[in-house]
Amino acid sequence: MGRWLLLLAFFFSIGGHFLVLQTVAWAGMLQNAWAQSHRMDEAVVRTFDGHHPCAMCLKIEKQRETEKRQKECRLLEIQKEALPWVAIQLPVLRQAPFDYPLCLDRDGHRTEEPALRPPRV
């Protein structure tokens, strides 16, 4: 039961309910357009061309935009609250200058013997 509730919560969190509502709206539009024109190809074109949205499609789009704006506002509020803490917690990292080891000459050859002897065969 817990898995199903988790999947249902995930479905709603990603906007799956809009997909279900839009599918219902398209089915209604297709049925109405097919009943009016009596040709299936014309009904499909009229339903999915984007120039003839039904009232339900307009309401779904309006609600999507409203939820999108609300999420953006919440995100901005969270960022405003978290920003001072992040700025305080993160230190400024500076790159240290790279110095070549003293044991190399100008050509990059070693001038000193290695600290360990090579392994025996």
List keywords for this structure.
single chain, 121 residues, mainly alpha
Detailed description of the structure:
With about 120 residues, the protein is an all-alpha fold. It has a domain at about 15-85. Helix content is about 65%, strand content about 0%. The chain is built from 4 helices and no strands. The chain has helices at about 1-15, 15-35, 40-50, 55-90. Helix 2 runs antiparallel to helix 3. The protein is elongated, with a radius of gyration of 33 Å. It starts with a helix and ends in a 32-residue tail after the last helix. The model has no long low-confidence stretch (mean pLDDT about 80).
Distance, first to last CA: 66 Å
Number of helices: 4
What order do the SSEs take from the amino end to the carboxyl end, as H and E?
HHHH
- What sort of overall outline do the alpha carbons produce when their principal axes are compared? elongated
Mean pLDDT score, rounded?
78
Strand elements, count: 0
The secondary structure category is mainly alpha
**Nearest-angstrom radius of gyration?**
33 Å
Fraction of helical residues: 55-70%
Strand residue percentage: under 5%
> Could you name the ranges where pLDDT drops below 50 across 5 or more consecutive residues?
none
Note the main sheet. Answer: none
